[in-house]
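Shape is hard to put into words, and the shape of a protein is harder than most. The fold becomes a row of whole numbers, each drawn from a learned catalogue of backbone shapes. The outcome of that step, for a single protein, is printed below.
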Amino acid sequence: MTRLVLFLTAVLALAGCASPNKPLAPAQAAVADYKYLIGPGDSVNIIVWRNPELSMSVPVRPDGKLTSPLIEDLVAIGKNPTDLARDIEKKLTKFIQDPVVTVIVTTFVGPFSEQIRIVGSATRPSALPYRQNMTVLDAMIAVGGITEFASGNRAVLIRTADSGKQYTLRLRDLLRHGDVSANADLRPGDVIIIPEGFF
């Protein structure tokens, strides 16, 4: 009976060490022309030149819209700040001749479709706003790394931008052994799943 228990323990340990049938995540994946898109929870500073009474900081509501003086329920989600400024200018032309608007994002959350999600055995599983040239290491620092019982080298990266293609990540090598070759670029919408080890 003891031999059977030891054998099953050894099999489970080997299964935990086995690498999945997924390719390693490509080291280079960042998109050079990435533009930040506004999402619910962002705060934007709207500046209307020569009209301080119309200039203010407003939050983007959970429905993806914002409201400011003379403008009600303008869709902001999924737009970059320049496009949102042009939309505000169009709305303001009813009240002001040739308005000049600048939009500055001051609190970054981003749309849900572009957030990086880290789930499973991370110290603090989270959804993070994507930043240009963000890497797996950046994401792991933001969530406090992996737990003691995480099976980091069996972690999976799901790339929603590539129709859900899956890659293997070597988080334990990266975080515990400092192997920078295990680092990889992230793309908007990536999901990192960190399984727990068997013991």
Observations:
- Confidence is low (pLDDT under 50) at residues 1-19.
